[in-house]
Amino acid sequence: MTAAESPVPATNVPLTVEAGIEAHNSPTVAVNSGNPANIVVAERIDRPAFSAAIHYSFDGGKSWSEARFPVPPGEDRPFAPDLAFDEEGTLFVEFVTLEGPGNSPGAVWMAQSSDGGATFSDPVRVLGPYAFQVRMTLDTARDPGRLWITWLQASADAVHCQNCFTETGLPILAAFSDDGGRTWSDAVRVNDRSRPRVGGPTAAIGGNGELQVLYYDFRDDRVDWENLEGSYQGKWQLILARSTDQGESFSETIVNDSIAPPDRFLPYIPSFPGLEVNEEVVYAVWHDARNGDWDVFLAQSINGGRTWEPPVRVNDDAIRNGKDQYLPDVDVTPGGRIDVLFYDRRGDPNNIMTDVYLASSTDNGQTFSDVRVSDRSSSSRVGPEHIGVGADFGSRLGLASVGDRALGVWTDSRNGTVASARQDIYAAVVTNLPSSQAGPAVPAIALAAGLLVGTGASLILAARTRRRSG
């Protein structure tokens, strides 16, 4: 690739600009298909108190405003929001509210916006207490407008100790709504009962309306599940549960059974794997430490998740170089290019300073080429601290790709210090990416075009009719 053909990352744009010690992380991105210049980002806030925020843009991201978050009456700690636009331009936001000194989920709520995220309806209570890791996705194939939520259902007994679960067998559940979140189906169990420790459920809808749920099976990892001393020396599995009958039953396949845990983690807020479903092609991304340091991997299934190809290492730096790459998300363009966004420490000999990289593949995911997206490194040691885990950079980042461009949204600590723990949400566009797939093209994702403008560059952005899944 010549210099003129090389990808060009734009100047990074901050979405959070307040002074102080706020820590924003775990962004989710939604784009309005009816008005693609309307983009919304939501994230959780960990400092100075647990909360959540929503930002909206009507000029494709050139400027941003912050909406008033729809906090339910009598509640003060909204947390972990997720977003989705339907085909008519209605925006749904789902979130939990925390309660008690242990900040356990007290309820799950949903609100709507008919003006692109500027204002919201009064929230409606969706679920009761102890619903962890709640995510939302929208069916635009078989049942247009059907909302799905997935979550890990705990209990009071499971969370009675600080920073740990003690009860095994906690299920991943799913439920749907056909009336905009006002009423919901009975919850159904997603994961097989033989898996005692599971988490990180990420959902997406296949071309025929199949509900696909990707999650981790932590197997016999009591060390992290119960917050014990030491480190778990075994392997996790990544599992895809697939339902072809609207959640009445699920079949499971093992995406990968050799996941070496990268570090200690908190089981009630694990990092989410990335999931993209494109007709019959399913893409899963994650990071693990099988090579000694942390690498990002992609596995794909060309038959709707029934069987899986061997995983491919995504980051193109030298293998086993002691530099970590982690927390990926994945998207696929109509032309078939596969994009993966992730955090990356390859630029720091001490493996502390973090950047954001975008890796792209035009040969059906066999090889990837990486480009740095962040224009300034930030410290992985800046953020809210958890005992035994260190600074928390959140559980996900956001990615949307189309044509020769991609938009990334991530957690960034460039404005913070270890003392302040400040984290901000930043976005950037990468232009001049390959716009077509070499070799057999994967089926195109139905996307509409929009315009996102960052400093010095513009993005023709995929306008999804559902939330980005990763």
Mean pLDDT: 88
State the helicity in percent bands.
under 10%
Taken together, the total number of domains comes to 1
Oligomer: single chain
Structural class: mainly beta
Task: Name the shape in a single word.
Answer: globular
Distance between the ends = 29 Å
**Tell me about the biggest sheet?**
5 strands, antiparallel
Overall CATH architecture = 6 Propeller
User: What is the fold-level CATH name, i.e. the topology?
Assistant: Neuraminidase
Rounded radius of gyration (Å):
20 Å
pLDDT under 50 segments (min length 5)? 438-470
| Number of extended strands | 34
Q: Total helix count?
A: 1
Strand percentage, roughly? over 45%
Q: Give the CATH class.
A: Mainly Beta
Describe the structure.
The chain is an all-beta fold. It has a single domain (3-463), classed as Neuraminidase (6 Propeller), CATH 2.120.10. 1% of the residues lie in helices and 46% in strands. The protein contains 1 helix and 34 strands. It has one helix spanning 222-225, and strands at residues 8-9, 13-14, 23-31, 39-47, 51-57, 65-67, 78-85, 91-99, 104-113, 124-127, 131-139, 146-153, 172-177, 188-189, 198-205, 211-217, 236-243, 251-259, 274-278, 281-291, 293-301, 312-313, 325-332, 338-344, 353-361, 369-372, 378-379, 385-386, 390-391, 398-402, 405-412, 424-431, 448-454, 457-463. The strands form 9 sheets. Strands 1, 2, 30, 31 and 32 form a 5-stranded antiparallel sheet that branches. Strands 23, 24, 25, 26 and 27 form a 5-stranded antiparallel sheet that branches. Strand 7 (78-85) and strand 8 form a beta hairpin. 54% of the residues are buried.
